[in-house]
Design a protein that fits this description.
The protein has 331 residues and is of the alpha+beta class. Helix 4 packs parallel to helix 6. Strands 1, 2, 3 and 4 form a 4-stranded antiparallel sheet that branches. The longest helix is centred in the last third of the chain and has 63 residues, at 231-293. Helices cover 67% and strands 11% of the residues.
Length: 331
């Protein structure tokens, strides 16, 4: 009797295991939900999804949603998109939103946008409800040298046809900033920009900045304009300071050259004085040699000494008379 009970328990356990494995590979509840929604998905198709490691719920539920919305989407398309790494549920939601908004969006394009890394549902919503992009503060300088700090708001709408391969928001912001700098830079005075800031919007909008991007620019509005520094005056001040430093450097160079020349002249003068002293030291020796050799007589020597004494006396008299002359001139 005990063996019989053990046998029945074992059979029950094995039956439950087989039933659990069967229900895992054959999602009966999901298949019934699909039939109730009038979506024809074969039981072997669901088993094949399990074998391909595709969660059947992530295919069947979006398929039911698409079928109820009247979209022409089949299981193979959704499963292929899932296996490619896409978000099936978001693609189906985007298709439903585009259909309600009367935007032509085929499944293949929606799948391509999703696989490109863009949020296809957000793109469809942005096509219906445009988005406002606020640029950072753009610094631009008018021709009179006054800096203007400008902030703009760009209203854009997603362009479904250019979402794949089109540039994003950073490109729009960069192009708008470039257009603002160009427009302000071509203005003669900064007051012209302050008087009519809408001219910036018209000029920038007319440049076709949305070419090659995933957006269509609807409007560009100047949100704020502030007057900054006087760049022209600052540049002139910096240039004057640079010229001053150059002039000081050149003057210092000339002074150094003059000092070097003066030192050179002093050295030359000292050299010449040394030579004169050396020559004067040779005079007594030369006179002694002349007297000894008879080239100079004694009387000639006395006459020369008299002339020298007379010269020194005249110098002394002249030096003594100079202060009297200066006092007479002052009087």
């Amino acid at each position: 009797m005990d063996d019989l009970i053990i046998g029945y328990g074992f059979l029950l356990f094995m039956g439950l295991m087989v039933a659990g494995i069967f229900l895992h590979f054959v999602p009966i509840g999901l298949w019934i939900s699909a039939l109730a929604a009038d979506v024809h998905v074969g039981i072997f198709t669901l088993i094949g999804m399990r074998m391909r490691r595709v969660p059947p719920a992530q295919i069947v539920m979006p398929l039911i949603k698409a079928n109820k919305a009247g979209l022409d989407v089949n299981v193979n398309q959704l499963e292929a998109h899932y296996l490619a790494g896409g978000n099936v549920d978001k693609v189906v939601d985007a298709l439903i939103a585009s259909q309600r908004a009367q935007i032509v969006l085929p499944f293949e394009r929606s799948a391509a946008i999703d696989l490109a890394g863009r949020d296809v549902l957000e793109a469809v919503q942005m096509s219906v409800n445009p988005k406002v992009i606020e640029t950072p503060v753009v610094s631009a300088v008018a021709k009179n040298g006054i800096e203007l700090k400008i902030k703009a708001r760009v209203t854009v709408r997603a362009n479904i046809d250019r979402l794949v391969g089109g540039a994003g928001e950073p490109t729009i912001i960069a192009r708008v900033g470039e257009g603002i700098v160009t427009t302000v830079g071509s203005s003669e005075r900064h007051t012209d920009v302050l008087e009519s800031p809408d001219d910036i919007s018209k000029t920038v909008l007319g440049k076709g900045l949305d070419a090659g991007t995933a957006f269509e620019i609807l409007s560009i509005d100047i949100a704020d304009v502030d007057v900054g520094r006087n760049i022209g005056a600052q540049l002139q001040t910096d240039q004057a300071e640079a010229d001053k430093r150059i002039a000081q450097a050149k003057a210092e160079e000339r002074r150094a050259m003059a000092v070097a020349k003066e030192q050179e002249m002093k050295a030359y003068t000292q050299e010449m004085e040394a030579k004169v002293v050396e020559a004067q030291a040779e005079v007594p020796h030369a006179m002694a040699e002349a007297l000894k050799s008879g080239k100079l007589g004694v009387m000639d020597y006395y006459n020369m000494m008299n002339i020298q004494s007379d010269t020194e006396m005249r110098k002394a008299v002249s030096a003594a008379g100079k202060p009297k002359d200066e006092e007479s001139v002052k009087r």
